[in-house]
Design goal:
Strand order of the largest sheet: 2-3-1-4
Number of helices: 5
Strand content: 15-25%
Oligomer: single chain
CATH class of the largest domain: Alpha Beta
Length: 164
């Protein structure tokens, strides 16, 4: 049976959907105080939310552009899906194992844009992405389109507090 979130759990999820952890020796102190909890209580609730699957993980996020990752691209792939196709499995393993890829989705293809697999790749230069895609395409015999990011128009946290 699906567990329902209680009021305090909703408050905690709402808080972390819009606030970052403090970069300090006590990263949960400010959040705990704001939420009227002790740090131990907050960490216990977060641990339980993670164990029950409501939270995947809490982590720090680096500003990839300030860390030298200037190129980003959405790569659209045409993969002929078949559970018996070993090459498909190898392709999926390759993409899943590449730390430069942050997103990986399967979608229903459109009549005019016949791609069904999408990955978002981050690299220091466009050539790194292009080289990876060309090599992967040859290895797995895949059609592709590379859509490089020209300008980031919106990037913000999803405010779950408004949805709970």
């Amino acid at each position: 049976m699906l567990k329902m979130l209680n009021k305090k759990e909703k408050q905690i999820i709402a808080y972390f959907s819009v606030h970052d952890l403090e970069f300090s020796s006590n990263p949960f102190a400010k959040a705990a105080k704001t939420l009227d909890l002790t740090e131990v209580e907050l960490i216990d609730i977060l641990t339980n939310l993670q164990k029950s699957g409501f939270i995947k993980h809490l982590s720090g996020v680096l500003n990839h552009r300030k860390n030298g990752y200037k190129a980003n691209a959405l790569i659209a792939w045409r993969l002929y899906l078949s559970s018996k196709n070993v090459k498909n499995s190898q392709f999926i393993d390759l993409i899943m194992g590449d730390d430069r890829i942050s997103h990986f989705y399967q979608r229903t293809p459109d009549k005019l844009f016949k791609y069904n697999i999408y990955s978002m790749m981050h690299a220091k230069a466009k050539k790194e992405i292009t080289d990876f895609v060309k090599k992967t395409s040859r290895e797995f015999d895949l059609d592709y389109e590379i859509l490089f990011t020209e300008k980031e128009l919106k990037k913000e946290k999803l405010n779950l507090g408004e949805m709970l």
